[in-house]
Specification:
It is a single chain. With 427 residues, this protein is α/β, with parallel strands linked by helices. It folds into three domains: 2-26 and 393-422; 46-234, von Willebrand factor, type A domain (Rossmann fold), CATH 3.40.50.410; 243-378, Jelly Rolls (Sandwich), CATH 2.60.120.380. 30% of the residues lie in helices and 27% in strands. It contains ten helices and 16 strands. It has helices at residues 2-22, 26-29, 67-81, 102-105, 120-128, 138-148, 173-182, 198-210, 221-234, 395-422, and strands spanning 46-52, 87-93, 109-116, 156-162, 187-194, 215-218, 243-244, 256-257, 260-266, 271-278, 282-291, 300-307, 313-321, 327-335, 346-354, 368-378. The strands form three sheets. It has a six-stranded mixed sheet, with helices on both faces. Strands 7-9-16-11-14 form a five-stranded mixed sheet, with no helix packed on it. Strands 8-10-15-12-13 form a five-stranded mixed sheet, with no helix packed on it. α6 (138-148) runs parallel beside α7 (173-182). The radius of gyration is 28 Å and the shape is globular. Residues 1-41 and 382-395 have low confidence and may be disordered.
Length: 427
Amino acid sequence: MIIRKLLAAGVGSGLLAVLACGLLPASAVADDPSAPPADSAKATPKVELVLDVSGSMRAKDIDGQTRMSAAKQAFDDVLDSVPENVELGIRTLGADYPGNDRKTGCKDTRQLYPVGPLDRDEAKTAVATLAPTGWTPIGPALLKAADDLKGGDGTRRLVLITDGEDTCAPLNPCDVARDIAAKGIHLVIDTLGLVADSSTRNQLSCIAEATGGTYTAVQHRQQLTSKVKQLVGRSTDAVVAPVATQGAATCTDAPQLKTGVYTDRELFSENRWYRVDVPSGQELRASVSVSADRAVNANYGVLLRGVTTHGREIVRDDEDGTGRTDVVSAGIRYPKPHKDSDTPPETVCLQVGNSFSAGPSVKTTPGLPVELSIDLVDSPDQPSDVAFFGLGSGWWLLGTLAVSGAVLGLLAGWVSRWRLSTGRTVR
């Protein structure tokens, strides 16, 4: 039937228009000579999991099983989900020496599986052989792990899983973490405390904070599995060196921020302020994440708000948490219309607030980890930079296909009406 063919042509053209936006290669939509080649090689991320195998891991208080059993099961699940482009290794501490000689026990750390392309079965077999044994030399293990991750230009992430604080003073693992951060190798250390007491929590929080990482308290096996998977996945993110800053109680006293990633600490139910200058023709894109690095009450939220220096609200976003996630994020966009080259930048005051609360036994200091991302890009109202809602120089292809689909659709409708009015069948 002619009508069916015309309808098919009209619908097909519409589908082609959609495909031009989302499914065709980038070169078919926008020929951008400044874009990197699609097949350009990316630096390989490196991750090392550092597992405490000390004697205290025999405790049977995680979902009715020992801490060691819970960790092994979590590792099995994690190893199955490691991205193909990530080089992963495993280091232990306290796995080999069962004696009482402190000097020997504080050297008890070894690389169980070398950092490199992952053989999942081999790594699982190595983990299966582990049994709770000795001391907790966290400081020495961190030093060795930093050496394990040397080389390459990709991200480096170390995930420390332990149920207790270091037993090998005077080598303070927090000082070790600070020394690692001072080397400028962008090694992030994330820490997870298994049923950790307050002393362990404080030490692990300090280690993580020193390198821009996160601390998470773990009470259940599935929680451990999910968190380690999340941290391994983060290793595929681009290398970004966060800058420590400190928000103020008012916009007037707030630090001036530029494009970049910033870290801060915010007390429970606190508001902090930051300032960003947005030039004419630029768009401010800001996002914030607040981490619950300790036990908190359910039903909390995070606020990110942009206001003028006179207090008028420009834009806001607030997100709620229910206790099922340890990170809550919010984000805003504010385009500054282009006027002329003499237009001065507009100062935007950013307010970061939270409604976290905790039980009486939970320490409220140090504050909750805050990560604030600031970006300034060309505003979408600049046609020379962003054409046709972000389609670049490929907008004409979408326009041509859309017009063709519309014309054919109208023609099909006209033929259909003509057939009904005349009572004729067109073949």
